[in-house]
């Protein structure tokens, strides 16, 4: 049976048309274009007749929001989230995080390994993956840690993984590796981990907080977190770039936040983009909605060592503008949430991180779109197609026949005020509480099945 989405504005990284999409078996079967909004009903209906009468459901944008044209986009892909499962149900569970993800428009999520126990073997990753498959809300890709227990010593179970190119039998393999917020200290050990990543053909997400002697000196002399954390990020960014070149692997830099790190990445990527790197070295990076939308002044209002604390910290306005510039010129490849839910008591005690799955799209529309900034095609690329490519997922992120029907319907003209009490996530620690954002997710489809529908749909 088919599902038809008609009278929609259809947008992905290369497309901006009016028309309809036909879904069958969880796959996009056809995209039917119309010339104008006014022409959509006539030509769209005529085109759909070719697909027969076996239609299970028709979603008509003109009736969902009378007088408005709703926007159909690929579901979002998150390269960086903390699901806190297993081990921390008071903060989040697989179920609550997955519900938050679909409410935020996400169809694919990479979750970090800093759980209890740490996800450091394929078997542990498979258990969480299997639970997610049974739940059926999103595609979850658990990260595997680089070292056992994330203790910085012996390499983890990544050494036992079989690369897809090494066997004819498909063996599940993580789509990303990461030591999360603990950079591997020894260069030799990190190079060994990078070598495994190259063998497996998957990226390493580097959180860049190993600042070496300079950062430690700043701490001993009582410098503020703003000072020594900047040193940490900048030094560690340079380090992983140089070691990534040596290992000839794919380095992905997480949550870039300083203007100096932006320039290091840009200076590295420009020659790579011009001529490529035959050795196999690849450099990609991400920024978060909170670093794009907030500054250290906001952290102070929230409580710099409590509700406003995040790693890396919120930076200056100059840093924020540098990040926006890097998004606009393509230096930053993707936007990732770094969703990090905490209990109220944990935040009061200074646990770093913000909940972000349910606000990310609205923050990005609000902060990044406008004259001389992003259009919806570019925003879709940053939040869907580009992160899918980084993960090697070629069947999503675009609205094209043959791709998976992981889709969202968005009211791009809507405004709403952030109220964490309405979140699906167990984490109420949003730095955007009380802020008015643009763009509301009305519906999320996973493999053609509706997994989230806003209460505000008439």
SSE blueprint:
Blueprint (H helix, E strand, L loop, with lengths): L1 E10 L4 E9 L2 E8 L2 H12 L6 E6 H4 L5 E5 L1 E6 L12 H10 L2 E6 L10 H14 L3 E4 L34 E2 L8 H14 L3 E3 L5 H9 L4 H23 L2 E4 L5 H17 L6 E6 L1 H5 L2 H12 L9 H13 L4 E2 L8 H5 L11 H9 L7 H15 L16 E11 L18 E11 L2 E5 L5
Parallel strand pairs: 1-4, 1-5, 6-7, 7-8, 9-10, 10-11, 11-12, 12-13
Antiparallel strand pairs: 1-2, 2-3, 5-14, 14-15, 15-16
Keywords for this structure?
Urease, subunit C, domain 1, TIM Barrel, eight-stranded mixed β-sheet, five-stranded parallel β-sheet, 14 helices, 16 strands, globular
* Estimated helix fraction: 25-40%
CATH fold-level assignment of the largest domain: TIM Barrel
Oligomer state of the chains in this structure? single chain
Quote the distance from N terminus to C terminus: 25 Å
Described by strand count, sense and barrel closure, the largest sheet is:
8 strands, mixed
Please give the CATH architecture of the largest domain: Alpha-Beta Barrel
Query: Mean of residue pLDDT?
Result: 91
Low-confidence stretches: 36-47
H/E series: EEEHEHEEHEHEEHEHHEHEHHHEHHHEEE
Gyration radius, to the nearest Å?
Answer: 22 Å
